[in-house]
Amino acid sequence: FNATHEDGGTRPLITTATNSTPLFILAAIKHTFRNIHFSNTAGTRANGIECGASFAGLMMFNCLFDGFTSCVTENGGGIADASFSNCEFKNNAANNNTFVRTTYRLHFHGCYFHDLTGAGSSAIIQDGAAHFSIVNCIFADIAAIAANPASSASVINSSFYACGTPITTSNYAGQIINNIFYGTTAYSVNVGTLTGIMRNNAYNAVGSGLRTGTYYPGSDFSDILLTGDPFTNAASDDFTLNSTAGAGAACKSAGIQWS
Asked: Which pairs with CB-CB distance under 8 Å and at least 24 residues apart come from 160-169?
């Protein structure tokens, strides 16, 4: 802790300035990281955490990743279940990189992904068919795809600001509910076939369109169409809703209950 117990404390810094050097290569046991600032300042960047062997689980709480080729990825092994709570991933200007890329179950709650600006770079990629969830997260300034689940996914109560394509997948069984898409440069949601629920999401009319793909006939999307930026000051990391008509005011109390 910092001043009082359970106040979150200050994050100790683990960093490297050595070229092409990952910070951790994980072995075949369960791993938990809490309250750590991971950083890479080398001229030739590397991954932050690599999975060198298959293991059952990875849990990360209140961690910060800054400047890696990929923050968490597989390299010779797979993670059966990875969960991230209140973590921040930022600052990658190289092309075709990711923040998190794994094969199996992925869960994110209260995380912030931003400034992934290299061409073709995507925040989260899931390579295998397993459950995927994003709840109460923020994605800002993501060059290509914010979230690329493989199959069954839930994306709930999250915000996507200035992303290329916020959500893309070929076959999607899950929920896309109560999200805000603003400043998208392509489709906000790009699916091959959606066999789940998609409703009460807010969009502004930019990019290629609100969504593309095949959806259940008669789907009740209940779209909220925005005429202005709904956030108080996204440029300064303030993603609270403003009170502007047709913008933040249109999103307040517009969601639905979900389970």
From this structure: 160/184, 160/188, 161/231, 161/234, 161/239, 162/234, 163/139, 165/190, 166/139, 166/142, 167/191
